[in-house]
Amino acid sequence: MSIINIGIVKSIISKKMSIDYLNEGKFTSSKNLAHNFLKTVENNPLLQLEFKVFDRLENRHISDDFSATRYIDTNLNLFEGYSKEDIDNAHQELKPFFDNEQINESKVKLFNAISSLIYESVDKKYPNVDILHDSFITVLNHLKEEKEIKLEELISIPKEINGDKLVETALNKFTKKYESLEKDDFNFIKKLIEATEEEKKNLFESFKNENLSKLNKMDKNGIEDKINETINKINKMEFSGENSIKNIIDLRELNKDLIV
């Protein structure tokens, strides 16, 4: 079972909001859940701090080890004065929002690492140094990775905490980005979100092969370098659970644009 922490709970609620919005008529339930979650965070200073630190460590990109290490340490220092007991008590308030079935597995390792870093760093006398080390490496490596916006995260809880306004902002962010979609595009995205990993992999391989086939048949007069560059880029693409939806959408859009 995953550790109950604010990163996992936020991910659960974001996932519910996106699925419920696509399933017409069900959005009210997850909207109320998000509202209650935000109120809980708003009324607890420690959860507010965790909310901000999780967001920074999840989404910030810092390429070099030294700067990334300093950044992690700076965020951990914000918890000075809190104890493990304080954190345990605060996390009890997150239990009503925890749902094992809605966990975004791709982020569990990162969120548990951030939570463990915070939890062990407040123990100045007897921290578990092995957990500290392993968690630090996980977070450090994540900070150094280039960040990409994934479809599952388009309805994410905004950075500032402000009750109902946040839920409205999150929904507007989603609808604005996709209001111009054709019906078949919208249905495809809905199908993609609900697909199993095996189904996503099959879609990925199908679009990849179709694109390569089209590119190899194209008239290369004057644009041979560009076509070869695109072919090489597609050949290097591999199915990855973390980036699968973005890659499938990118390949599908390219497939629609290629005319042979």
Describe the fold and architecture:
With 260 residues, this protein is an all-alpha fold. It has 2 domains: 6-177, no CATH class; 195-257. Helix content is 68%, strand content 0%. The chain has helices spanning 6-22, 27-42, 45-59, 65-77, 84-92, 105-121, 129-144, 164-178, 183-194, 197-217, 224-236, 244-257. Helix 1 (6-22) runs antiparallel to helix 2 (27-42). The termini are far apart. The relative contact order is 0.12. The model is unreliable at 149-168 (pLDDT under 50).
Question: What layout of secondary structure does this protein have?
Answer:
Layout: H1 6-22, H2 27-42, H3 45-59, H4 65-77, H5 84-92, H6 105-121, H7 129-144, H8 164-178, H9 183-194, H10 197-217, H11 224-236, H12 244-257
